[in-house]
Amino acid sequence: MAWRALAVKGLQSTHILSGRYSAGRISASHVIDLAKSVFSINSCVSDHPFISAVQEAAYSKVLQQRNIFRYIHTNPHLLARRGDDEPFGLKTAKKGKYVKREARTQPPVEAPYVPQKKKASAKTSPVKTVDIFEGMTVLELAKRTGASISSLQDILVNVGEKVESEFVPLSIDIAELVAMEVGVNAKRFHSKEGSDILPRPPVVTVMGHVDHGKTSLLDALRQTSVAAREAGGITQHLGAFVVEMPSGASITFLDTPGHAAFSAMRARGAAVTDIVVLVVAADDGVMPQTREAMAHAKSANVPIVVAINKCDKPAADPERVKLQLASEGLLLEEMGGDVQVVEVSAMAKTGLDRLEEALLLQAEIMDLKSRIDGSAQAYVVEARLDRGRGPLATAIVKAGTLLSGQHVVVGSEWGRIRAVRDMLGKMTDQATPAMPVEIEGLRGLPMAGDDIVVVESEERARMLSSGRKRKFEKDRLTKVSEDSPETSETLSEEEGIKRVEMSIIVKADVQGTVQAVTDALKSLNSPQVFVNVVHVGVGPVSQSDVDLAQACRACIVGFNIKSPPCAVTQAATRASIKIKIHRVIYHLLEDMGNLIVERAPGVSETQVAGEAQVLNIFELKGRSKSKGDDVKIAGCRVTDGRVVKSSTMRLVRSGEVVFEGCCSSLKREKQDVDMVAKGNECGLVIRDWDDFRVGDVIQCLEQVIRKPKFISSESGAVRIEC
User: How far apart are CA 39 and CA 27, in angstroms?
Assistant: First the structure.
C-alpha cells in the first residue's frame, strides 16, 4: 500500500504546484518536493498501469510549467506571453548535402574591366530669385537670400564696402553683387515714388507664321521696303522702329521672323512688348507658328490684336480664319470676347487706318505710363559686331532716360556709352521710354535679351560685370554637366547603335541669329549623330576659327556674313575643313541636315535582294570521294530582283522559313556565275541542305546600311528621322 500513499502524495504535490502557479507563487522547494515524489514512485513500482498514468500526469505538469524556471521573477501578465516559447535545448542546424569542391586546374579568366555606369543625376532645383531695391539693409538682404549676416558682411569686405552694422543701407548694385556671390539670382525693383510718370507710346510686336505678310504690312504702315532687303524675301532678324501715324501718334513696332528656327526671337519680342499684332493670312489660315505666337503672348500676359492679311486674294476666306482662331481659344469681339480683329491687305494698303485705330484704342485702355526721370532701364533686342564701331546693341528703353556718357552694365559686359543713335542712324543725346536706340561703347558683345543697368562709376561697372561673369560661368558649367550626352550615348550602346559626334562652329551677323542657328542645329540631334556646337561668335570667319576647327575637327557654319578672305579659305582647304556660308535659313538647315545624314554610321539591316522559285530538282550520283557526296541541285527561275552567289539564301516553304545558309554553287547554262538577274533560270546548291521540293521559294538576303532621313515640314521645322 506504500505505493498508493506515494502516488496520492505525488498527485497532491502536482495539484498544489498547479494551484500555486495559477496564483503566481512558486519556489524551488515546491519543485523539489514534486520531483522527489515522482522519483520515489518510479523506484517502488514502475510497471503498474496506474503508476504509469501517475508518472505521465506528473511529467506533463512539469513540462507545462517549464517556463517558470526561466522567468522566475516575472509577473503573470508577462508569463502569459511566453506560451509559444520553444522547448528546452538548442536546435542544431540541418546539414546540407556535402559537395566536393572541384580542383581548379585552369588559370583564372582575365575579364576586361567594365567601369561602373554613372547614374543620371537628377536635375538641380531652380535657382532662387530675390527682389532687391535701392537702400535695402544687410539684415533685409540676409532674410531674402537665406544667408547669415556674418557671411554677407565678409562678402561686403571682400568687395571693398565698409559696413559697420546690419542696418546700414546698401546700393542696389552692391546688393545684386552680394546676392550673386551667395548663389541666388537678383531681380531689380525700382520704386516710382517721387518720379515723373508720363504717358508713353505703345510697343507693338508683329508676330505670325512665315510668309503671312508681317514685314509687308509694316512696310505699308511706314511706306518703306524692308522685305526687299532681306535675303530670300523672309525676315531673319528682329527689327525695331518707330512709325508716325497719320493721326500724329507714334507707335514702336518690333518685327519678328516667322520661321520655326527663330522661336527665341519671338519669345524676346513678346517679353518686351505691350501689344501683340497676330498676322494671319486669309488664304492660309492658322499655322504652327501662329499657335506658337499665341502661346508666347499668353505666357507674357500681353493682349492680342488680330490682323487678317491678304484679304484681296481670290482664295481669301476671313470667316474660316476667325473660326480657326476661336477653336484655338482666342475670344474674338464678334463672338463676345475682347480680342479685336481687323481685315487688312498690305499690297492693296486697305484696312490700315482701322488697324491703327485698334492699336491706339488698346493702348488707351491699358493706360501706358512710365517713369521719365532717373536712371534708365532698357532691354537688349539685338546685338551685333561692327568692324569700325565695335559691339553694338539695339535696345528699347522701358523706364527712365538713357544718356550718352553713362556707365552701363549689359548682362555680363560693361562699358561707357559713346554714342546713342535712333533707328534711322541719327545721333541723339538721350533715349526716352519706348524708344528703340542703338548704343555703342561696350567692351564686349552682350546677349540678346539682357537688361541694361546704369551704374555710377567705372569701378562699380567693372565689379558688377566680373561678378556676373563668374555667376554666368558657374551656371554654364552646371547646364553642360546636366546636358552631357553620356546618357544618350549609354542608351545608344545598349541598343547596339553606334553614335558619332559632329562638331560645329557657328558664326553669324547678330547675336540673336547666332542663338537661333545654334538652337536649330541642336534640334538635328539623333541617336546616331550628336551635334556639338563647340564655339559661337558674331562676325566673319577668321583664322582663329579655322585653327579651332582644325583642333577639334569641326565644320564652320556661317549665316548672313561676308565670305572669308582668301588666306582664310586657303588655310581651311589645306586643313580639309568645310566652310558653309548661307544667307537663307532654309538652305542652311537643308545643307547641314544632308551633311549630318552623310556622317551618320547607319544601321545594318537584312533585306531580300531577290526571289527564285524551284521548278525542278536534279541529283548528281556516283561522284568520286575526291568530289564529295551526292548533290541535289534546285533548278530555279528568278522571279524578282537578283540572286547573288555570295549572299545568304533563305528557303521558304508554304510561307514558313525552313533553312538559311550560304550558296555553294550557282550556275546558268552550265557556266559558274556570281549573279543571276530577274527572268533567268539557274541551278543553285545550298550548303548543308538537300531537301528541296518543287514550289519552294529561295530568297537571296543581303546586308544593307540604312541611313537616317532629313525631314523638313512646311512650317520650317526640321528633324532627323532614324
Answer: 19
